């Protein structure tokens, strides 16, 4: 008997959304291509922009929460409620 034909299969590039042969030569050819390089740069740019937007949103949220906390503390101080400076020790002390 002679050898049987075996398919080498295919690989999927998540960056370019394309299929190519599952061998080293096809992988190298694809990764050196202009389309892959351009898509990779676009993916990096999008990731950086998304990170910056998330960082700005987090900063805005933290600022809003700080303002809310300050307003709550001021309201509690005006109405004589709560502990503003932190927990206090009992007036008799510990023996």
TrEMBL record:
Its main location: nucleus. SMART domains: ZnF_U1 (SM00451). The keyword Zinc applies. One of its GO terms (cellular component) is precatalytic spliceosome. Residues 11-42 form the Matrin-type domain. Gene3D superfamilies: Classic Zinc Finger. The keyword Nucleus applies. Signal peptide: none annotated. It is found in: Nucleus. Keywords: Metal-binding, Nucleus, Zinc, Zinc-finger. InterPro entries: Matrin/U1-C_Znf_C2H2, Matrin/U1-like-C_Znf_C2H2, WBP4. GO terms for biological process: mRNA splicing, via spliceosome. GO terms for molecular function: RNA binding; zinc ion binding. This is Matrin-type domain-containing protein.
